[in-house]
Structure formats: structure tokens, C-alpha cells
Amino acid sequence: RRSECVSTLAPPPKEELGAHVQHSVSVARRRTLRLRTRVTLFFAFIALLAGIVLIGVTYGFARSNLLDDDEVAAKQQAFSNADAVREQLTVDPDGIGVFVDDELRTDPGGFAVLSWTDPAAPQSIITDVRHPLSDFPPELVEAVRNGSSATQSATIDGSDYLTVGVHIAEYDTGFYEAFPLDETETTLTAILTALTLGALGTLVLAGLFGLATSRRLLRPLSQVADAAEEIASGGLDTRLAPESDPDLDRLAGSFNEMADAVQTRIEREARFASDVSHELRSPITALSAAVEVLDARRDELPERTQQALDVVVSQVRRFDSMVIDLLELARLDAGATDLNIEDLRLTDLTRRVAARFGEPDIPIVVANGTPDDVALDKVRFERILGNLLDNARNHGGGTLRIELAPAADRRFRLAVEDGGPGVAHGERDRIFERFARGSAARHRIGTGLGLALVTEHTAAMGGSAWVEDRIGGGARFVVELPARVDATHHAGVMT
After folding, report:
1. Which residue(s) pair with 364 in the sheet?
2. How far apart, in Å, are the Cα atoms of 362 and each of 74, 249, 328, 375, 418?
3. Residue 482 pLDDT
4. DSSP-assigned letter for residue 100
5. 3-state DSSP: the chain helix, strand, coil percent, rounded to 5?
6. Minimal CA–CA distance to 322: which of 272, 385, 277?
7. What single DSSP character describes residue 133?
8. Rounded to whole angstroms, what are the CA distances from 155 to 73, 77, 160, 494?
9. Helices (H), 235-377
10. Is 47:206 a contact under the CB 8 Å cutoff?
């Protein structure tokens, strides 16, 4: 029944730029990882870094120790074998080749080579035909020929060996022995595999620990967010429970104090609005009765007095409507109104309400699938549709049609279309606020509370309201409601 203003001006370039910046910020926020995810990734990163350092240090230490042990063992065995070769050369130099190949003890997979010159037949004897002296590192061979003993790692036939060269000074010859490193490499591979699996396990455990820790740390923030949402939806008495942790208990206490202050202020303002409305109701009623008496005898007044009377009558009626709307909003804010659910015929109810508000011939379009049998609060539905019709009549150039259509989740939509210039995008949310006026309707009639009441009654029945462009020009005010309203839904929801 009460009207609301609509706007005809497009948003200025500054508002468009602001909307674009706000959209960019919202996109950037959507792309940012959640705090819980970042905490979990931080723990996983620390575990990964520690695992890499641990693997590197442990593997390097193990490799160094194993190779040092292999080198010590190889030197001991090589010098022992060199002593045996020297004795064999002293006892039976002719059988030195057989001795080196068959009787000399070497590691499995290893081999020994003796580079010896026979005094009777000056020639170099290589005791291992499979592995010539050239298989050994040239630096090692050169060092032995110069009268020294040395060790050096080498790759022979694709395998890793530790080679040892011993100079036998009595016969000016060199004994060379190669020790395979396959067992050491296998051990190192097993150590590296174990360390890697351990690091991966640690990484998984750190990630799970980080996830659990982040949940524990963010639980109070989640509780604060949930409590804030409940307060925003009308549950002003929502409070946080005390926490055992001093820092978290301080957060909970500060939040509760803030909620107390907000609740006190809102309730004080609501009582003030209600008290003012009640106090104004009696003088407004008396004033309305007086101006109605004067208006009934307007023919007895001069023309200029009649014009002044018309202004007084219109303003008193507007004031009376505003007080009635304020009283209704005060009751809604206080939760003093309940839902009275009735089984109704949607199409018939819409037609009766339209006729009651001066639109008996308005076209009512019913889309296929629209539920005709509904259960809702009849009085609230009448207030919603009546205010939308008044808004279209006063600010949209008149109502063009009413549309009923189905919606998802067993809901339906009521749309009132007008032939006005429409509503600017920047004002589509604001016009549903109390006393809000569009930039092109600041001097028109209306209390500025009609669409606010539409929002309140719609929310009380679990629905929503918005405005959009009408195809062909004009505004399209849409209300979406459940086909069967839950009677337990709280009717005093604040928006």
C-alpha cells in the first residue's frame, strides 16, 4: 500500500569506476588462498625444507663414512696381497701369473693386476687378460711407476671401483687391485630410499598437523564469524562462550562487549522509534479528523484557502501513513508479529489484492508450473503486493502487468512491472532501505518506507526481494517466496 521512490539517472562514471575497482578487489580476494590452506602449506613447506636438509646431511655423512671405510679396508687388503705377491716372486717367480689369477684372495667382483718385468726375458707381464693395466686410472699407474702407492675411484666397464696401486720396491714392479663398490652403492641407495620415504611421511604428517592446528587456531574466528552472521540476521542475543586460552578469552570478551553495545543501541533506537510513533498517533488522528471536517466544507472557503487546505490534507495523510508504517516496522523489529499461515489460491488472491488497490483490470500473467495452492501469510502478502502496486503507480508511470512464475526449490515469484524509466544499478539495493529515495524521485509523494516494508515482510516469510530491468523499458520488482511458508519461521527478522 505504501509507495517507494525509483530513480531515472544512470550511475555517474565515478560510481562505475568504483564498482569496477570493487569487482577487481573481490576477484583478487577470491583468488587468494584461504588462511587455513596457507597455514597447512606453511607447515608442509617447513617439513619439506627440513626433510631436504636432513636427507642431504644424513646421506652425505653416510656416504662419506662408507667410502672411508671401504678405502681403509681396500688399502689393508691391497697391501696384504702385495706382500703375498712379493713372497711369491721370491719363492717362485715363474708361477706368479697363476698365483695372482687363482690363489690370490680378492673381493668378489674385484680383480688384481701385476705389472712385472721378468729378468730372464725382459718383458712386461700382465697377469689379467680381461682387465689390462689400461683399465686403471693413468694417474694411479703413473704414481706407482714413480715409486709411490695410491688409491683412486674409477669406472670400469660401467661399474664403480676403488682402485689401489702398491709399488713393490724390491722388484721395482706395481701391484694393482680393483675393489667393487656395488655393495656400497646398494647400501647408499637403500639409505636414500629410506630417508626419502621418511621425509614424505614427515611431510604428510606435517600437513595433517598443520591442518589440525589451523582448524584449532581458526575455530574461534569461525565462531566469531558465525556469531556475527547470527547477529546480522537478527539474533542480537548471540554471544560467544568463554575460552580457556587467555588471548582467545579476551577476543570472546571483546566481541561480547561489542555485541552488548550494539544490541543496547539498536533496542534503544527501536524503542525510541516505537515510542515516537505511538506518541504521534493520537495528535495525528485528531489532526486528520479536523482536516477531514474542513475538507468536507471546502465549498464554504475562499479559493486561496482551498488551495492551502489541499496542501494540509495531503501532508496530514502522508504523515498519518508514515506513522502507521513506522509502527509496523517497530513491531517487526521487536519481533512482535507472528506468521498466520493460511491455505490460499494464489491467482485469486493476487487478483483480489490488485482490485483492492485500484488495479482491477491489470493483466495477471501466470506462467506454466506456477503453484496455485499456496500456504502463506495472507496479510503480509497483501502488504507486499499493495506496496509494489503503489510504488509502480506513484513512481513508475503505472503498473503494466503482474506476473506469477515458478522458481526453484518449491518457490514462486511475484513480479510487478511498470512503464517508468527504471532504477539505476547503483541504487537497486539502496531503494529497499528505510527512507531511501532515488535521485529522480526526491520530490514525489510517498513515505520512503514502502519497499522497506516489502523487504521486511518478504524476509519474515523466508523470501527475498529485488529489482531488475524490464524488457522494453521500465522496472520489474520481483519477490520470491516459498510456496508453503514454514510457520515456525521467525517473523521479526531484521534486515
Report:
1. 402
2. 107, 60, 28, 24, 11
3. 93
4. I
5. 55, 15, 25
6. 277
7. G
8. 19, 20, 5, 83
9. 246-296, 303-334, 346-356
10. yes
Q: How far apart are CA 11 and CA 347, in angstroms?
A: 37
User: 528505510: which residue's cell?
Assistant: 434
Distance CA 149, CA 160 (A): 20
β 411-418/399-407 pair status: antiparallel
* E strand or H helix that includes residue 72: helix 35-91
Between the CA of residue 346 and those of 1, 341, 410, 424, what are the distances in Å?
19, 13, 14, 31
Residue 403 gets which letter from DSSP?
E
> pLDDT at position 128, please?
52
61 vs 67: CA distance, rounded Å: 10
Q: What is the pLDDT of residues 18-53, one digit of tens each?
A: 444 455 445 445 567 777 788 888 888 888 888 889
At 113, phi and psi to the nearest 5?
-135, 135
Q: Give the 3-state secondary structure of residue 464.
A: strand
Helix (H, G, I), strand (E, B) or coil at 218: helix
Structure confidence at residue 17 (pLDDT): 42
d(CA 100, CA 127): 7
Are 6 and 413 in contact, with CB atoms under 8 Å apart?
no
Q: Contact, 136 vs 176, CB < 8 A?
A: yes
Looking only at the bridges linking them, the beta strands covering 373-377 and 399-407 are unpaired
Distances (CA, A) of 303 to 264, 287, 306, 310: 52, 22, 5, 11
Q: Report residue 5: phi and psi, to 5°.
A: -85, 150
Q: Which has the closest alpha carbon to 67: 188, 166, 169, 155? A: 188
Q: Which residue type, as a one-letter code, is found at position 31?
A: R
What does the alpha-carbon distance between residue 163 and residue 136 come to, in Å, rounded to a whole number?
7
Which of the 8 DSSP states describes residue 397?
Answer: S
β pairing state of 411-418 and 464-469: unpaired
* Closest to 164 measured CA to CA, from 233, 226, 71, 99: 71
For the chain, list residues with pLDDT below 70: 1-31, 94-98, 100-105, 116-130, 270, 273-278, 280-281, 321-323, 325-337, 436-447, 487-495
